[in-house]
């Protein structure tokens, strides 16, 4: 199990494990209501923390509807508009879609919606793999500060932040524990 380190020690907990579970459950119910069930839904997690969130949503929807919801993973790295500034930091993972997305309802899943640039890149990457009937966006945290005209269809929690603050999503699959933390970035 990973431990909270560095400036995370001074971070404020926004969602604990139980609150995160309830947020995911609520989002799953909203997806089912908006889409009249799950038969046409394909969940696609944006790497990296969007993938386990998509899997958790699929498990919740499956438990409610007694249906297996396809889950894929998408790497939008090569579609980002900041590739030049990232340079050698690029690490590209394969995109794996579990089904043909043509004429399906694809729900892109990510941990945090901030400027909207990752969601835009993910949308571009997704459209290279087919033409969904509809694309929706689900995020655990919407922190504001949009630079592009995008909004999430499903939000676990809206957390107004200052630009010098960071949202740290910790998931058991990656970090050994579940929590969403708000921290101030250290000043130089």
Terminal CA distance: 31 Å
Q: What is the CATH topology?
A: Rossmann fold
Count of all domains? 1
Quote the average pLDDT. Answer: 92
What portion of residues belong to β-strands? 25-35%
Please describe the biggest sheet, giving its number of strands, its sense, and whether it closes into a barrel: 5 strands, parallel
Shape annotation: globular
Return the structural class: alpha/beta
Q: Which architecture per CATH?
A: 3-Layer(aba) Sandwich
Extract low-pLDDT stretches. Answer: none
CATH hierarchy class name: Alpha Beta
Order of helices and strands: EHEHEHEHEEEHE
* Rg measurement, Å: 16 Å
In DSSP terms, counting alpha (H) and pi (I) runs of 4 or more, how many helices?
A: 5
How do the strands of the widest beta sheet line up side by side? 3-2-4-5-6
């Amino acid at each position: 199990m990973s431990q909270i380190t560095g400036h995370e020690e001074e971070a404020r907990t926004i969602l604990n494990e139980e609150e995160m579970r309830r947020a995911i459950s609520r989002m799953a119910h909203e997806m089912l209501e908006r889409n009249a069930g799950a038969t046409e839904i394909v969940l696609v997690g944006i790497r990296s923390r969007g993938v386990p969130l998509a899997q958790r949503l699929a498990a919740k929807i499956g438990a409610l509807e007694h249906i297996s919801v396809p889950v894929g993973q998408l790497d939008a790295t090569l579609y980002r508009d900041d590739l030049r500034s990232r340079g050698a930091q690029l690490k590209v993972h394969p995109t794996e879609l579990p089904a043909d997305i043509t004429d399906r309802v694809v729900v892109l899943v990510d941990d945090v919606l901030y400027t909207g640039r990752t969601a835009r890149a993910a949308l571009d990457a997704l459209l290279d793999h087919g033409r969904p009937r509809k694309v929706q966006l689900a995020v655990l945290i919407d922190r504001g500060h949009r630079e592009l005209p995008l909004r999430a269809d499903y939000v676990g929690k809206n957390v107004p932040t200052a630009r010098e603050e960071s949202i740290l999503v910790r998931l058991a699959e990656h970090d050994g524990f579940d929590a969403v933390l708000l921290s101030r970035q250290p000043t130089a």
